Amino acid sequence: MLKVDPSSPSEAALRRAAEKIREGGLVAFPTETVYGLGANALSAAAVRKIYEAKGRPPDNPIIVHIASLKELEELAETTEEAKRLAARFWPGPLTLVLKSKGKVPPEVTAGLDSVAVRMPAHNVALGLIRLSGVPIAAPSANISGRPSPTRAEHVIADLGDRIDIIIDGGETLYGVESTVVSLIHGEPMLLRPGAFPKEEIEAAIGRPVAVPPFARGLGEADRALAPGTRHLHYAPRIPLILVEADDYGDLGRLAAAIASLAEEQRKKGKRVAVLATEETAPLYEDPAGVIVLGSRRDPFSIAKRLFDSLRRVELVADVAIAEGVEERGLGLTIMNRLRKASSKIIKLSA
Ligand code: TXA
Ligand code: MG
To answer: Ligand 1 pocket, 227 CB below 6 A?
Structure first.
């Protein structure tokens, strides 16, 4: 375990970790989104260790992290649009899926002919990639299916005994993963909403980004298109009920529905946690178990605490109930994660 200052990490610590990457080992490190579980992206044997440690299904490909635009050109066929997005938004929480040039082994791409690439906006991640001298393949550093880690403690809890080095850089900034956009089809397609709002991508390229149902957390995609959607994701160890509304103008109704669900569960002797927002928290008559994630006016604040809260509730409750939010900006990201994490969805219609 190497504890570092996230904005100016010690070079000696990064060198040790980089050495481990070059030897083919596993290093967990912070990015601006969540903690990643990194290995040398050019080594099939090293990347296989990632799948083993996480219990990751072998058909779910891994994002390659780079520290310079030159590496992008080496790994993928770039289009004008890809170059524009990379130049404008990297380093940052945006992942581009492009045609692979075949430099990374099939273990990274799960045998697809595309590769997902991003340049993280975090001095630990960038320093580690530079000092390693190789691109780093890194999925989120959680056991497959669990909420993504936003603190080193989450990584230790899930994978502590299966990793060579954990770099602790404190809590991550966004708390949700990068936005994944595919540029290999006719129209740009959102494969996973994330920390970067898709509205900004559209403004930069001057055309819409398609949002298929699976990107909203509804249903599964074809394996060749978005392999990750077919697997269990983000689930806490207790049942999670998500309550959605057609529109979120009437928060009183939403809170009332959740309060009565909570009461039903308590009568069965269950401890209940309600994942609420600043706007709704005062509407619950019984404040027991109400956890405030953030404000509906600032979905960033909700996203930031989401995974950490999913890991907290499983320690204090037998069942959790979450409020839905409007699917705009980061709200789309929050709803994707909540839908995929939930064991049951209740929809209040108008
Ligand atoms: O913020 C993030 O993206 C974090 C940090 C560590 O960078 N990483 C992360 O990785 O969230 P992971 O493995 O948990 O999610 C990667 C997603 C998966 O949904 C995967 O299916 C998709 O990216 N993906 C990777 N390569 C792909 C490809 N060639 N085509 C389509 N989807 C791909
Ligand atoms: Mg993940």
So the answer is: yes
Of 48, 63, 82, 180, the C-alpha closest to 125 is 63
Produce one character per residue of 87-122: b if its CB has 16 or more CB atoms within 10 Å, e if not: eebbbbbbbbbbbbeeebbebbbbebebbbbbbbbb
Residue found by looking up tokens 């993504």 in the block: 148
* 184 touches ligand 1 (CB under 6 Å): no
Residue 5 CB coordination number (10 Å): 12
Would you say the CB of residue 116 lies under 6 angstroms from ligand 1?
Answer: yes
Per-residue pLDDT tens for 33-52? 999 999 999 999 999 999 99
Residues with CB under 5 A from ligand 2 (ion): 140
Rounded distance between C-alpha atoms, residue 122 and residue 142, angstroms: 19
Q: Give the end-to-end CA distance of the chain in Å, rounded to a whole number.
A: 52
Read off the pLDDT of residues 112-166 as tens digits, 9 standing for 90 and up: 999 999 999 999 999 999 999 999 999 999 999 999 999 999 999 999 999 999 9
Mutate to test the pocket of ligand 1, among 95, 100, 230 (most ligand atoms within 8 A of CB): 95
Of all atoms in ligand 1, which is nearest to the CA of residue 60?
A: 21
Dihedral, CA of residue 118, residue 78, residue 206 and residue 220, to nearest 10? -60
CB of 126 closer than 6 A to ligand 1? no
pLDDT of residue 231: 76
Nearest CA to ligand 1 atom 24: 61
